[in-house]
Design goal:
By secondary structure, the protein is mainly beta. It has helices spanning about 1-20, 150, and strands at about 25-40, 45-50, 60-70, 70-80, 90, 100, 105-115, 115-125, 165-175, 180-190, 200-210, 215-225, 230-240, 245-255, 260-270, 275-285, 295-305, 310-320, 340-350. The chain has a 16-stranded antiparallel beta barrel. Strands 5-6 form a two-stranded antiparallel ribbon.
């Protein structure tokens, strides 16, 4: 009887330990801080401390539990932090208005995953945002070279799009990898504060991608319905790895009501020892809003370790015609017609 009780106790102990090992919670984050010197036509030079020059600063918690039968539950809570001021990020609780109160505004999701793929609910990146990140763009959406300068929408006709990066109140499905192909679809509504208009703030979008050893191709489109005029974002991106060099191309179009902006980017990233040289050139054509523009950016990232890197970037944005709409990130807009802006930044990034 004693041996039997002992065996049962051992078995229960092993089962309890095994169950505990199948659940995990991870704390993670990025700290990015630098110095920016910028200038714009018609304005004085500006020297400032900046955050997110290479990667968006953040902190968060993520966890997963193995439920058995090939099913896992997972959560992700991630917030932005401005390293220069300690401020948190903004959110859009209804995909219409903006709020500065967003402790976990970067991502707050809960979902299930398995061989079928992943079902994800909450606030998350839209499928149409993926190509603007470093998946295709050499500088992603950070620093003076960020894709947002010319690939983000321009407000028009009373419509200020809030879903070009993330959507709140969303339901998303991500497929498993099927011979190199993956898919991502999302639906999001405006929540309880979405009045007036039942469809005001509703987003629907999707993305299809293919990846093999050296080639990556992705196309995405999404639409948000607004009472003041719908917003549609579409883009196509591709990269190819030639030894130490990765070349990239990105096309993107934003339509806000009857206006539109269309951008083309060609870029390259070249590994050199413990670092990487980056460059990108973008052209923008505008219709009914803002103005045409170009942007040239060059930069270098030097890895001190797997978690810490130094970086520097230089960028120039030229407005065409009499336009003054566009400028380098973090700097002043030009005030003279057809003016330009430039920025030089140095910084350090640490991941944990």
């Amino acid at each position: 009887m004693t041996k039997t009780k002992f065996s049962i106790a051992v078995c229960l102990g092993i089962a309890a330990t095994s169950g505990y090992a199948q659940s995990s919670v991870t704390t993670f984050g990025v700290a990015d801080l630098g110095i920016l010197s910028s200038r714009a036509s018609g304005t004085a030079n500006v020297n400032s401390m900046i955050t997110d020059g290479n990667t968006s600063s953040r902190f968060g918690f993520r966890g997963v539990e193995d439920l058995g039968i090939g099913l896992k539950a997972q959560f992700w809570m991630e917030g932005a932090v401005s390293m220069d001021t300690g401020a948190s990020g903004s959110t859009s609780p209804d995909n219409i208005a903006s709020s500065s109160n967003g402790l976990f505004a970067r991502r707050s999701t809960l979902g299930l995953q398995g061989s079928f793929g992943e079902l994800r609910l909450g606030r998350d990146y839209t499928p149409t945002f993926s190509n603007l990140t470093t998946a295709v763009h050499p500088f992603g959406t950070n620093g003076v070279g960020n894709a947002g300068q010319l690939f983000y929408p321009v407000a028009a006709g009373g419509t200020t799009p809030r879903t070009n990066v993330r959507a709140s109140n969303s339901v998303a499905y991500l497929t498993p990898n099927l011979a190199g192909f993956t898919g991502h679809v999302m639906w999001a509504n405006a929540g309880a504060s979405g009045a007036p208009g039942a469809d005001n703030g509703r987003y629907v979008g999707g993305r299809v991608a293919y990846r093999n050893k050296d080639l990556y191709v992705s196309a995405a489109t999404g639409k948000t319905e607004y009472a003041t005029g719908d917003y549609t974002q579409s883009n196509i991106g591709a990269t190819y790895q030639f030894g130490p060099a990765r070349v990239s191309y990105l096309w993107g179009q934003n339509k806000v009501g009857t206006t539109s902006t269309k951008a083309h980017m060609i870029g390259v990233q070249y590994k050199v020892g413990s670092g990487e040289v980056r460059a990108a050139y973008t052209t923008l054509k505008a219709k009914g809003v803002a103005n045409d523009a170009t942007q040239l950016t060059v930069g270098y990232v030097h890895n001190l370790s797997k978690r810490t890197a130094l970086y520097t970037n230089y960028s120039v944005v030229d407005n065409k015609g009499v336009g003054t709409r566009f400028s380098v990130g973090g700097g002043s807009r030009p005030t003279s017609a057809g003016g330009s802006s430039s920025g030089l930044e140095f910084g350090v990034r640490h991941s944990f």
